[in-house]
Amino acid sequence: MSLLEIRNLDVRHGLLQAVRDLSLSVEKGETIALVGANGAGKTTLLRTIAGAHMPAGGSVVFNGIDITTIPAYRRVGLGVALVPEGRRLFGQMSVEENLVLARSAGRRGDWTVERVLEAFPNLKPRRHAKAGNLSGGEQQATAIGRALMTNPEVLILDEVSLGLSPLAVDRVYASLQSLIGGGTTIILVEQDLRRAMRVADRIVCMLEGRIVLEGKRGEISREQVSEAYFGLGTDKGRVHA
Ligand SMILES: Nc1ncnc2c1ncn2[C@@H]1O[C@H](COP(=O)(O)OP(=O)(O)OP(=O)(O)O)[C@@H](O)[C@H]1O
């Protein structure tokens, strides 16, 4: 049984259908990079998995439990954590307070403030700083740390690199790498194709609400992903590389 089974998912924003009849299985310990042009439906898919948006059709099954209609806060308790685009930290609260607050929402587990600070060493001197005064990279690290404090079984990261300097992106990925190596299941949206293809076990490319290409790292080329990204050569439907 896969950790996450998305079946025939339809998601709408009013009249606009952002996700169309989408099915995807995610195995335990896998890292999936979701790529695709602006408006392809990536954020909508992640938010629907996390329960921030309800689908019009289809189902989301996590650990064998149908969570399709379960509210977001209860999904956190089941082990689903989303790091949203824009990070959404409590700006007037310190890094530590943001982290501690998340713990009560999540599952029991090994993540502590100390462990997050070990995973993201650049946060150590900023522990008592207000989140609103942090750099973009420090905010992203705090947002990921906050998600980790819920002891997730699947960590969902939207636009990991958005608005960060190359150095800050390197730092965030260096920390993520230890999680990826440690068996945490990760679904991430990454605009930088080269980085996505370096970090993920599997690349999933979306176009206009559908998956048009998916393949394991090493079995899929950048050219294939680029073509799918722009909708070239995908008239045959979903392609498994
Ligand atoms: N709250 C909303 N209300 C109305 N339409 C929305 C809303 N959120 C997204 N959409 C529309 O749904 C479609 C999919 O958007 P979504 O943000 O999921 O795509 P994306 O692949 O994450 O794009 P981006 O890379 O630009 O974030 C787009 O056409 C977008 O305009």
Automatic annotation (TrEMBL):
<protein>
    <submittedName>
        <fullName>Branched-chain amino acid transport system ATP-binding protein</fullName>
    </submittedName>
</protein>
<dbReference type="Pfam" id="PF00005">
    <property type="entry name" value="ABC_tran"/>
</dbReference>
<dbReference type="GO" id="GO:0005524">
    <property type="term" value="F:ATP binding"/>
</dbReference>
<dbReference type="GO" id="GO:0015658">
    <property type="term" value="F:branched-chain amino acid transmembrane transporter activity"/>
</dbReference>
<dbReference type="GO" id="GO:0016887">
    <property type="term" value="F:ATP hydrolysis activity"/>
</dbReference>
<dbReference type="InterPro" id="IPR027417">
    <property type="entry name" value="P-loop_NTPase"/>
</dbReference>
<dbReference type="GO" id="GO:0015807">
    <property type="term" value="P:L-amino acid transport"/>
</dbReference>
<dbReference type="InterPro" id="IPR003439">
    <property type="entry name" value="ABC_transporter-like_ATP-bd"/>
</dbReference>
<keyword id="KW-0813">Transport</keyword>
<comment type="similarity">
    <text>Belongs to the ABC transporter superfamily.</text>
</comment>
<feature type="domain" description="ABC transporter">
    <location>
        <begin position="4"/>
        <end position="233"/>
    </location>
</feature>
<keyword id="KW-0547">Nucleotide-binding</keyword>
<keyword id="KW-0029">Amino-acid transport</keyword>
<dbReference type="InterPro" id="IPR052156">
    <property type="entry name" value="BCAA_Transport_ATP-bd_LivF"/>
</dbReference>
<dbReference type="InterPro" id="IPR003593">
    <property type="entry name" value="AAA+_ATPase"/>
</dbReference>
<keyword id="KW-0067">ATP-binding</keyword>
